[in-house]
Fold this protein.
Amino acid sequence: MTKDTRNRNIIIAVVVFLALACCCMAATAAVGFSIRAGRQAARTIDGFELGTIPATTTFSRSFDVDEPAELMVDLDVGSLAIVAGDGSTVQVDASIKAFGVSDTDAQQMLDNLQLTATQTGSRVEVVGRWEDPNPLRGRSPQIDLRISVPRRTDIEVDL
């Protein structure tokens, strides 16, 4: 093997080594950026889609009614339990919870929930509304509603 051939082989080996080193560094950088982007996306998804910080409040109203009473419930979100009670009182109790990525965000979500209970004669209407300009932005709020009614009550529910 001549000196020129040996030098050419060394130069080729060095060029191949440098090319492989560049490819390895590029692959490492790409993996690092992907992991970093994935972590950022996970934080965004956790915060945006699954806000975990709660804001809570309670609601309680009592109405004296004559039998037969009427109850109408219209509830956008949450759960409803209606039980027969003794006496002539409609008792409405609720635990209300909203979620956000911060205390302020959770409170804003809670402020977008409206729960009302009104009486007209022996008819009680309970309406729970979630008015959110961007309803796909996060975890749904909860209105856990428990209503006690006289035994002779006509009930209409819209969930």
